[in-house]
Amino acid sequence: MKKFIALLLLLLCGCEVSLNNTPTKQAEIFLGRYQSLHKEVLNDLDLEIDKMDLSNENKEKYRSVMKKHYQDLEYKILEERIDGDKATVDVLIEVNDYSDVKSGLEKIISDLSIENEDEIMKRRLGIMKDTKKQIKYTISLTFTKKDNKWIIDPLTSENMDKINGIYTE
């Protein structure tokens, strides 16, 4: 009886690993990390923020705005295509639309004659924080099978812009 239970557990564990080892499941895990603010996502965000010439106050505000943005991200898997050791998963995402923040900010700057970069960023973050408009994009995530496991390929800048809600055509 113990052998049967051990074999059953082994089979169940093997099936679970197998079910997680699909391009679609890896896409879900990847996007879920944004929604759950996984430490890797936050580390990447911090690295980008550190590159910006912002006051500490604006860095914190930007981090807060982007964390909420990532948590609000919604997605729906559309299609998975596998060709040997390569795969593509098309995903419909819905995110806050920050693409028109720049034009709204330019109007504020010209109306108020603001020249201070830190004040401009403060205004920009205020617009981003108050954005209610959502936009849908289709992104194509690509994967490569290595050592029998599907690994996501580096994202294109277009896909990153779409995830961050700043994509413009």
- Residue stretches low in confidence (pLDDT < 50, at least 5 long) are 1-17
Annotated CATH architecture: Roll
Estimate nothing, just give the exact number of structural domains.
1
Number of strands: 4
> Biggest sheet, open or closed, and with what strands and sense?
4 strands, antiparallel
Structural class, by secondary structure, is alpha+beta
Describe it.
This protein is α+β, with helices and mostly antiparallel strands and 169 residues long. The chain has one domain: Nuclear Transport Factor 2, Chain: A (Roll). The protein is built from seven helices and four strands; from the N terminus they run ααααββααββα. The longest helix is centred in the first third of the chain and has 19 residues, at 2-20. Mean pLDDT is 86; it is low at 1-17.
